[in-house]
């Protein structure tokens, strides 16, 4: 996994609540057996005017010019700003894969759906929860200034505006450690193999049916 | 202080707790399907890792499989969509390579993973159950700690049999009293989501309790827990009672002989203690619940069938006002339009929410002696597994449905998410027993209305939404 330390980038605003993972990456693209290549189909139904299918040449498809990611001022954005309950619905990890593949490194919203939030950390993408009022302020500032950028500093746990305002955010210490260092958590868990084996032995004595083979 | 059911399940599975409060949780069962597992197996191969306990995993293809009998007779080779075919083939190859038990296409036990697990007794009370699918919450109906995970976590569970977790909050949804005749688990859960909202359960494990929940069959409880995720909660739970135990007796993977009694004794402890503390409690009067119909593009946009599309003035905030405006437009509905005036183009009865035998029976009871309205282009019934299909056929339900003009399909996820050929056309309204009414979920531009199986069958007959209770009284 790639590490996340400090990211400064253009902010793309999506002013809606309950952005679901079907919207982030529609189901027809889940048929891929790879982890990469989902970026061109991020928000496919909002981004293009035609119906997208796997294998299409996306550069030739008609764009919905009014969609935020198609507007010239937001090209190259790496921070996504949205409203509450971002990432609700399906557990598809293709959603953070698509955001990452497009070039986003952080998503800021007042709240996130649990599974999506969790999936982000496995992929070097940082979900940041900020209060409604701060998110409101950021939406206003983004609208007012073309090329608006935010700086996200994970080790300091702070989002910094161009006006040098600093907004602190929370993140689990372990997740932060993994993200800062780009650590693969399977390897870390396997360091505790003895504890897992001990657990299995104790549990097998009490609830043996749980260890029957399927 | 007493423990909640969730506390008990959690405590029984903690392998280790770190300083920051995250825990390593042991996983008893992993269910696998073709969409969210290929990258996990690939990850194991690249890292040269071996599965920790492969016999804890059970796989079946469901999302991509065609539901037409013609395509199904040829197995994987019969899948017309080449991309879907590769994905199903990849699951088959991975199961063979790693030695995972699979109910492949052509096996009568194949079906939707959340129907198959309980049906086989592969889901048991007191287990931790995970699957790369958010509707894994379904299995909580058996007092199993079950939730959806992403593909990286599927790989993590394959490699370590554990998951890194932070304990959720305890939420109790208490449905007091009895529901009226004709009200199903689906109506209860849609009503609950309407009350608490799609983020109402974020960060929580919801335990559903109260007389109305106790009165539900295991199938009804599965429908309720299935949609916990639509209320934002990864986990839905119902405590063990005699119905739980009766359902599991003699299932293929349920414990046998002396282990059965040992297991049952343990299962009976899987209830919240009387003095357990919940972080959040929501009380619902069962008698308030009418048949529910979703009108918009989020499961919280739901009203009783006798109701109307809400007016903008009823919105609670600017954000909700914008959401509703977008939903009116997408759904092609006007504020204050009556729900019964919505004309249907298609009807879908199926999905991990409502494709079990009780659901098929409910649809057939409404369809019996009636005909699907000529204005309805298609009304399909997709059983949740080959075994549900066989059971329904043994009861003659397929004949009732076919006679009424419904299609009788092969098992799979089908039009719930339209990864196979079953889908809506742009602008089409569908009465659907599935779980999500998101934009484009059932096909680009498709307009989904979430309902119970009886309500979907009634809508198919009438051609528009109608209170199924009036039709049952007629009959």
Quaternary state, please?
heterodimer
Sheet with the most strands: spatial strand order of chain A: 4-3-2-1-5-6-7
CATH level-1 class of the largest domain in chain A: Alpha Beta
Shape of chain A: globular
Share of residues in strands of chain A: 5-15%
In helices, the fraction of residues of chain A equals 25-40%
Largest interface: A-B, 60 and 86 residues
Number-wise, the strands of chain A total 7
What characterizes the major β-sheet of chain A?
7 strands, mixed
- Continuous helix count of chain B: 17
Quantity of strands of chain B, as a count = 19
Q: Tally the helices of chain A: what do you get?
A: 8
Beta-strand percentage of chain B? 15-25%
What is the rounded distance between the termini of chain A? 33 Å
Keywords:
heterodimer, A: 214 residues, alpha/beta, Aconitase, domain 4, 2 domains, 7-stranded mixed β-sheet, globular, B: 475 residues, Aconitase, domain 3, 17 helices, 33% helix, 16% strand
Question: Would you write up a description of this structure?
Answer:
The complex is a heterodimer of chains A (214) and B (475). Chain A has 214 residues and is an alpha/beta fold. Chain A is built from eight helices and seven strands, in the order βααβαβαβαβββααα. Chain A has helices spanning 21-24, 44-47, 94-102, 114-121, 132-144, 173-181, 185-190, 193-206, and strands at 6-14, 79-82, 106-109, 126-129, 149-153, 158-160, 166-168. A seven-stranded mixed beta sheet of chain A has the order 4-3-2-1-5-6-7. In chain A, a hairpin with a 5-residue loop joins strand 6 and strand 7. The two termini of chain A are 33 Å apart. Chain B is an alpha/beta fold and 475 residues long. Chain B is built from 17 helices and 19 strands. In chain B, the strands form five sheets. A five-stranded parallel beta sheet of chain B has the order 5-4-3-6-7. In chain B, helix 13 (357-367) crosses helix 15 (397-404). The longest helix of chain B is centred in the first third of the chain and has 17 residues, at 82-98. The mean pLDDT of chain B is 97. Chains A and B meet through helix 4, helix 6, helix 7 and helix 8 of A and strand 2, helix 2, helix 4, helix 6 and strand 8 of B.
